């Protein structure tokens, strides 16, 4: 973490991300200091106090949201808003909450649609919102703001943030499929899904994650039960219908679905699922809980194999499954993604099984061997040739390194009965919710 952070400070301070090969910075998120904000809580948790103070100072004096920039509502929420809220919850510093509130206010116009389903781009200066790729907002883009906006309402006692994002879930609940699997294209005019792919990979992923986590965040009370109910439907009736096993080695994997057709392909992004299942398993009756945890363990083995089967022992982005051939690499790049170590973290916390630590240690060693430069960390263009790219992703500091650190820390560091991680690994305090959808308790 120190190496990644110091390299960023030295070559790219104030920019969104570091380009280690060219030793400069690049604004990938409109110049919001994404790496600074994404790394705040990791620095805090690791006790890197001087670094944290320098980052805090930058946020207080240089972080400016008044930018004529069409921000991704999803990315800005999970990285910047989530990072600020987490820094606030960990440090108690009100400045972070003030910044978070200002940012959320600039994002809110995205929800001003006929259905209340948000658009995916909003200009931070003008408040003009639109959808970047035509008519639809993607499922993950409408279902991955709940934790952050609910947390903001709880901390400011202003219900408007929660109302906007909870209304989205209520809207989706009205047309929620029997199997809980929602196609990824959502029409903001009608609030209904349009025929499109169903996936636990990119485009779908964190919608399902946040159904579970909004229930955890509200402390599993009556007020947030509808989240858990929707989540259970999408797991028990939905996810389980997408599980197939390879031949000859019987690796479990998650298919995608188009109409009624299952597609034998899986993103590394979907490797968050074992962790999600582990986190959600205790909420089931004992026999069901055991089955769900067992599926989580099987899928984690598959995800670990995504890493082990390449020459660098780092995973590619997407895999295919053909009869008799087990697993094949479809998309060969690696961008320092965290999903597999995230799942290993949850499985280690919930089972105490040290195998998960060993898996994570091997993945860490592969990053050290193939992604570390003198000037920071880079992804790989190809996990078999080892050819490197030129970007140190902000989520490498926010997520990948944080989950690895927590895997080798006592469970009392960020205990899961007091904290819930957003999808960018920013821990938010669990606050009991006692009232229904339109009040923040």
Write a concise synopsis of the structure shown:
By secondary structure, the protein is α+β, with helices and mostly antiparallel strands. It is built from 15 helices and 19 strands.
Structural key phrases:
441 residues, alpha+beta, 46% helix, 15 helices, globular, 19 strands, three-stranded antiparallel β-sheet
Strand content: 5-15%
Q: What is the approximate shape? A: globular
Radius of gyration computed on alpha carbons: 20 Å
| Major sheet description | 3 strands, antiparallel
**Helical segment count:** 15
Specify the structural class.
alpha+beta
Strand order, sheet with most strands = 3-4-5
Q: Could you list the spans in which at least 5 consecutive residues all have pLDDT below 50?
A: none
Descriptive overview:
This protein has 441 residues and is α+β, with helices and mostly antiparallel strands. The protein is 46% helix and 13% strand. It contains 15 helices and 19 strands. The strands form 8 sheets. It has a 3-stranded antiparallel beta sheet. It has a 3-stranded antiparallel beta sheet with strand order 6-7-8. A hairpin with a 4-residue loop joins strand 7 (185-187) and strand 8. The longest helix is centred in the last third of the chain and has 23 residues, at 286-308.
